[in-house]
## 1
Amino acid sequence: SGNDDNKTLSIRVRVSDEHNASLEKSVEITLLDDEHEDSDGDGFTDHDENEWGSDPFDADSVPNEPPVDLHLTNASITENRPATTIVGQFEAIDPDDPEQIGQYVFSLVNGQGDEANEDFHLDANGTLLTNHSLDFEAEEIDGNATLSIRVRVADEHNASFEKTFSIILLDESQFISNFVAELNATYGDEPFDLNATSTSGLPVQYFSSNPSVAEVDANGTVNLKGAGQATITAFQNGGGITDAAPDLNATVTVGKAALDAIALEASRAYLQENPELTFRYEGFVNDENASSLNEEPSIETTATVASPSGEYPITLSGGEAENYHFIHHGSILTIGKAFQEITFNQELDGMVFGQEPIELNATASSGLPVIYHSSAPEIAEVNGTLLFIRDAGEVVLIATQEGNENILAAEPVERNFEIMDVTPPVISLLGSSTVYHEAATDYEDAGAVAFDSLEGDVTHLIETNSTVNADEPGDYEVVYNVTDNHDNVAVTVLREVIVVDTTAPSLEVHGGEPLLVNYPASDALIETTESNATEQNVDSSSQTLEFSFPVPLFAHGLVLPPDLSLDAIERIELLGLDHEEAIVVWSHDDEEQTNPSSTDDLSLSETNATTDGFLDYNSSVSLEPMPDVHWEPVSLLTQHVHLYLKPGILISSEWQLGDFEIFGTLENVVILEAGDTFEDPGFLAEDTVDGDLTDEVETHHDLNNLVPGDYHIVYQVEDKAGNVTQSGRLVRVVDHSAPLLTLRGHDHVEVAAGHPYEDEGASAFDVVDGNLSSLIVTGNSVNVELPGTYGVTFVVVDSRGNLAEIERAVVVRDWNPHELDITLAGDFVMENAPSGDLVGEFTAFKPGEELPHQFYLRDGNGSEDNDLFYLENGRLHVADSIDFEDKDELSIRVESVSSNGARFEKIFTIKVGDAQIPTVATGEVSEVGETSAYVSGSLLEEGGNPILRIGFELSETPFGEDENETIVFVPADELIAHLDVLLPETEYHVRAVAENAEGIGYGDSSTFHTENASALYGAVEIEGRRNWVASNWFGDVYRTETPWIYHSQLGWLYMASEDQYSIWLWSSDLGWVWTTAENYPYLYRYDDGAWLNFAFFTDAKRIFYNYLTEGWELYDAE
């Protein structure tokens, strides 16, 4: 049976063991067509691999290819030669044996081209020999005779190759061979042999037409005698049955030998005669020398006596010889630089600073110009051949000549000499020759400068002597002298210093503090500046407001009238107290302004309005409004402000002095509480000449410490020279003292809880405002329903906002415990009760009005077990685990709080119940199958706590023997369970289980054994391999707790048994397949209805034969 390519053979095999138990099985053998089949996929057919000796089922076996060609070393033979004459040697061309070291068998075979096989034979080495003497005339056709043979070669694997050869049969007449027609050589080459041969085997003779060029002896050795040409004739005159061979001529051309003529290097100095030039030879042969030359080459150079230093070529030319041709090699003539020396005998001693330059006259023997170098150019500087005197001192003058491209540098010549300085320096005063200096200030002299014609600026050498005493007025002088470094002394110069005292004493006010203030203007003047009209003929005059303010201060801002825009102001200027210093603090150019509004017809009603020197308390301290214009504070104390209006802006008649307020800072201000005694913080007056003048200071003021307000104290001091200094201080009298509050009655009062309380009150008195008792505000928070300490507060505020406060402590004593109580409905809890379980409910009681209460667990005596509970709306709940074995009674502390704050605490005892573990009984096991069974049980007693877990425990070993390693818990609320994940043929142990918070209760253990009705029925466990079983028909299988199995050859499979004789399997490669113990390894595939034969298995492949497609299926092994 089978298709066109393969044949299938069917056999049946039986096997019997020693007990004659047997098994029979049908086996199909596929007969493959090896002409086309490539079983191992290596690209060679099975037929070829069998031919070559390679394994057709092993891709790694080396294929043997047959030889691809045959070669015969000689394919001709002369007639009339005896039998066994050697014709030639066969050689095999084999790609497997490129070195031809293999063993081959050569043979004459029948086939196309075998007509002359009987005339020859082959020995074991592949040598072709004749069987008898051959006759040219018998085989001759059109003057040629050829014999055809067919030869086969086989390698050691019997791979073979066949080829037809034509053997040329030669006529008996002879001819000369192996003689070239043209030979080339060079004079001096070694002798060489002529190897011409004749086909008759008779010796060949030679003749030379020109022995002076090429001489040939009887042995055919050619000796070269000279350059030229000669003709050598090879001849064989014949003999016996052999005719003479035709002569052959060869032309021998002998070329001249190369002879190198090599010039030798030479050298000389610049301007000297050229030395004799020489050369040598390389390349003479046959022990010859220059005497064998007809004419020697000539040698010359391009250099002359006047040639500059450098390298010049030496060249060779010419020469004549019969057997040599010349190769000329030039060389170099090197001309070196010439020697020179310097002569420098000029007199250089006795030179002085300031003299004219000197012409230097050193010469060099080469005639080249001499270069000069000064060791100190700052003293004597060389410019060309001129020496310029720049300073005094010692100098080394060096004369050099560096040579040029033809002359060597000369040895330098040095001359040492000294230049003298004899001119004194000149002193010039800086500043005036007469100076007025303020006494008691540091005098710093302007000094002087000194200049020396040689040394330049010698100011640092000036010696200054001064008699000036800046602390004493009088006439003094400063004397200046200087000597240069060459001891030349300058003329002495004097300065007169007159010390005078024009400085007023300093007056420093101590203590106090800075204070921000604002004051309205106290005085004002109007200044008008006239100017020319503009092109539009509009008046362009400008006006200035000059304001004075009550006190000096450091100003930083100004309030303006509401209708005075900043656009109307040109600038604002502050003046010092002495009117000598002015600072512009604001300028219109520094601000981005809008166009000014019209201010036509403005005028000031009072141009010289004044106010009193000091303002009252209420009008001078207000800091509102804020300034309309402000600037960065400057360190200039001022009472005067100039406000410059833009041209054309007129002053309004509505403006008043009070519309202009200055903002600033007063230093050293003393804030004095009304009624307190003023103690001046002090001052210090010092004069640079008179010293400490503090005791001479005069003080002026009208301070009243009982009336709040601002007061200005003026300090004045005068030194002996009549210099006067003034300063001042602002004293602000304020009322910051609170009224005096006094309690009526005691400051500590007690009252029983629930009893009424009446307070006695307080009285108040203020230094300024008098009796303020009627203005006292009382705060009374006493709650007699809530024990505790309360404060009754009394507060009063005077007319300036000064507040006084006092408090009385009122203690509400605690409730009488005999009148208060808390009760608990429910004081029992079972151990292990769950969190949130209700224990009981609290109720609170108090005498009098019945009020709602809140309840809290509180720390304190009896609160040891508070953490086990929590309260919610007066109800007590379990919060944490409670254990009867730990404590059978629990203590908690509870507080009740009424809606009005009445509190009461009480200790309660909670009794704990003793819980037990559950009691269960194991029922019977029923409907036991291969992988499932039913089990039942009953819960006899819950134990007083909720059941946390109930069901069955299942184990493959008796309980307690394996430390529960294989125990599986199966939950079952009603203690009825269907076990459906069991293993076939396995003994199981089962028991009922129930668990509460107290522990676990177990029923008695029951044992049952699962059945095995699957196709693996009868499989036995493999010793030492857990979960592996061996089936007598299905092989080795690894079983899991699921339907998945692992077959030792088929890999992972999903198994679904119908019964113990058949099985459905699923794999990722095959899909669903079905087999039985009788059919395996034949498998029926569900997807395409094909029968598959599991033919064989390797480490890499699983191979199936498909009877539906009549083809092979290969799948990768895992």
## 2
Amino acid sequence: MLMNGEAQFPEALTAKPSALIGFLGLSLEQHIIWNTFSEVSSRLRFVNMENLEFPALKPKRTTYDWYIPKGILKRNWVSKHLNGIPSVVVLFVQLDWKHPNWSEKILEVASKVKSVRGTLSGRGTKLAVVLIQKEAPLPSAASDEDSERASSLCSACELSSRSLFALPISTDSLRGYAVKLENAFYELSQNYYHSEIRGVKSHRDYLNKTTHLYLFVRHQFKIGFLYELKQEPMSAHKHYGHAYSLLMEVRATDTNIMEVKTVAGFINYKVCRLAFALNLNRDAIAQFRKHADVFRHKVGCDRLAFEHSAWQSQQCHVFAQLFEKTISSSSGNNAASQAQHPGVYYQQAASHAISRRQQSEEAIQEEPNNFENVNMNLLENADHLEYYGQRPWRPGKATLEPPDVERENSGIRALIYWEKMNVNDSQIIITLLKKSISIFEMFKSPRMTAHLTVEVAEELRKEHQYRESLELLKPVIKTYRQEKWSFLLNSVLSLSLKCSFLICAIPEYASLCLELGSLEIQHVSQEEKNRITGNLIKLLERQCPSAEPGLTSKSERAAVTEAFPLWTSNLEYNQNTETPLIDLQSISSSSFNIKVTFENQEPVTVNSPGKCRLRLVNTGTNFPVPVQGVEISINDWSIDRKFNELVFVGPCSYLDEMFELKLQQSDIDLGKFSIVSVVVTIGSKFFIKLKKSFVDEVVTDHFLIPPSSSSNADAILNIMNEPDVTKVVVRQRTPLLQMKVLEKNPILVGEWFKIKLDFFNEEDSKIEDFECKTILLDSQDPLIGDTTSVSYDPSSQLEIKSPTDENVEAYAVTKHIGELESSKSLSFNVFLKASTTGIRNVRIRIKYKIGDEFYYTLKQNLSLNAIEPFVISTEFLSVRQRNISRIYTDEPFLCIPEVRSLCSGSIRILDCRIEPRFPVEKYSEGEDDSSLKNSILFQKGLARDCFCLLVKRDNLSNHLDIQDITIGKYIMEWRRDDENDINANVTSVFELSPAKLSLGSLFIQAFHSPYGVKKSPFNLTYKLSNLTDKVQEYSLNIESSEYFLISGNKQVHFKIIPHQSRTVNYVLHPVKAGPKVPLPKLNLKSLRLAQGLDVNETLERLLPEYMIVLENTHKDGFVKGQIRDECFKKSSSIFIESKISDKSSKSRSFKS
């Protein structure tokens, strides 16, 4: 029954069952114990019992032979076991093991236990005793005395030792003790519910299905619920399923159908809930579908059909709530899909609620005398019946036919009257539909969402919430327009028109009239379109439009009556009232249309102004439309034309207007005429503005007019099918100022690249406001903007920085020239500097005017490529001019920078220098001159410079055997060879290649004459220097040679102390002459292997291998001197070696 809550599920059934544990004996001071147990337990529900009051104990039945059940499920049974009867009663007593009056305390506790046990007599509730102790907890091995006291207490109380517990509260581990006790209480409760289930099952042998089928259903339900309390959901699900199957065997009649459906709904809820909890989602859905199919046609009394629909609605609603809760949890993510989700069941619930309203309205209409003498006393105590689902006027009557037909009819009338007076169907439907919409939106079903939104709007209209209904329909109308759902669109437009009429929403009403009155709208009769258009014309004449058809219900007729005064007051003249504006782009079609096009076939210039043609088309067939004025917005200005008299555009006709557009400077700058929007004001006494906006260059309206007998039909068709041409090119007169740009691409990184601009004025008169803008087009890119500078004077350093705006011209460098007389010329330069390679796009923009005419512009774009001017590579040589892979400490070496030109022209190298980086230093501090100074490097030319450098061991921060060091920077000052301006000088800095550095242990030098003469002896001296901090010991020998006779110690054994030197002298007597005579080979062996790993490499790197030996038979002194000079050049390595030994020599000597 609806009113007494059977359609609404009882709270006891929807709550999650938990075993009930009763606490007895806790005082207010011991609240910490209660709080701790409440926090630690998730399986049990604790209740603090001040006294032991339980429901009356039902007498045990020994036979069911003559017992006839009065109903299926008792109303109070679930609540009694859920909240009234605890499975375990826990008695708390404050008693320590060492209490001095232990014997007296035992008697006191035994008395309390006996009292509690007497109250629980006849029930299976378990009893436990907890001793609250203030002292520290007992050790793991309790004393014999404590064990005896515990045994004596159990004996005195007739209590099992497993039901006696101690709880120390003076320690920090109270929570741990509470968890242990909670587990013990849970085990006791399991035993209680197990015995209760066995007790219910024991009745089965005394029952038969012929007379006790209700009891079979009741007992299976009880077992299922007790299993839920026992926390065994699988067993509970099984027994609830058995209960449902047994209920299906009950014979359903008009007398008991409501009771059967009510109990079936409760059992189905339990089955579905447990199935979802057990992750049996498919089983839950299948069970509900089966449940809905079984009771689909079990209506019962025809007069109470609305009651059946209400029950169906509630079943769908409750299942949808279960389903939604499941998918919101992590375990139910795979339970729903786009075709199977809670929104479907919310929608079904709403559909049943709509059927409920229709059936209740029919039942109310069939009642005679408008419910006179209805007896509402028959519905008293409906919420306090003994069994669920029974009628309050015949409780406990399990008969096939009503015992009193007249009383039955009076009860049915009372139900119908209660339904009429107390149920707000629309509010129920709206709530269900909104829930369904939220789920469908979650599963991305826009069409279903739109459909349900329309249903909500319908219900809001029935609830007289017309403004809310209209706002809900606006996005739906937009969706149906986009998807071309013509039939649905017309239906929603009609509903919106009714709502806008009832609330006097003038802009919405006028917009809907224009759209519904359009010839493009289908599924609307011509008579209906004429009526709608006629209402619009009434509105324009400041008359109240006629009411919309279909508003026939009593409440709607009252709303129409209230709407007419509202229309009258809103249409009264008021100067402060803002004219309603309707955007024609926001509606799919209109009965009044705007077509615009440019008549210019060629670009618009100063001498040929633009012509814009505007046609206002009335596609209606019955009423002329009055037009007051037109406003056309073009670029950043507008044309406003007001007609002296109202112009009427007749039915199926059009108004043709031509506008001449005067050229503005902004139009020339923009380069086009662009119609932004057209606003037409229509109306004679009440005015409405129609706006059509244009975004694209060409706007095409696909409009087809149905066949018409009017002679203008073909012309209207042609006009409507024409595209809107809203843009036309605007061009300036060809400027006569001649501009020539001269540049030498590419740009060299680091230089101020010169762009020369030459101008010649061929205009008939002088030009004024002459200015030049240089724009870096890619300046928004930090890789370009931050590395590029533009200036007209490099010395002033006017530069473009990286902009943050998309308007690049706002960041241009501008030069104001002023005036230039006719037939005169002018030249100036623009400089651009790039610090990185890459393309630089530059725009040169010239602007000037002549007298009061428009400005003229000249533009030229340049694409300039910035490249590196040079490529630098580095080579390292020993003092013997041999390539070396590494350098050594305290040993001079030659750094050879190799410069390769990448420029297409010649480059003059003004100067070069090296800046060594510590610990590298110059071998001679006075060496600053470069061999490339004042030299010219041609295209793809190659030049080599030379510097003598040294790394001292004392300057190193770490003394690793091998490490990488950076040599330093090579600095070049240069300019293009054809530039003489000082601003053209560029300084480029290059990093020299790094080198590997090793710690040197030995440095050896050879001293001898630059050349020898055959049979003329000369001295050869070897100087060996120890570069380490340790004593070096060597064995030296010199090999015999067929080219020289050697005088001296050929084998020497010696030691060299740290940072000291040792010399070895020989006299060589040449026996053969030649330009490349091998010197005797010197062998050196370190007698300390750990320190002599690089000896042979050092000899090969530092000692000469050959020398020049001249014949001594030349008599011509001039020829002999020339040969000697040539020999001197070829023996430069020996000369270098001798110069290195002299610290005061100049670095130029190393470059000979």
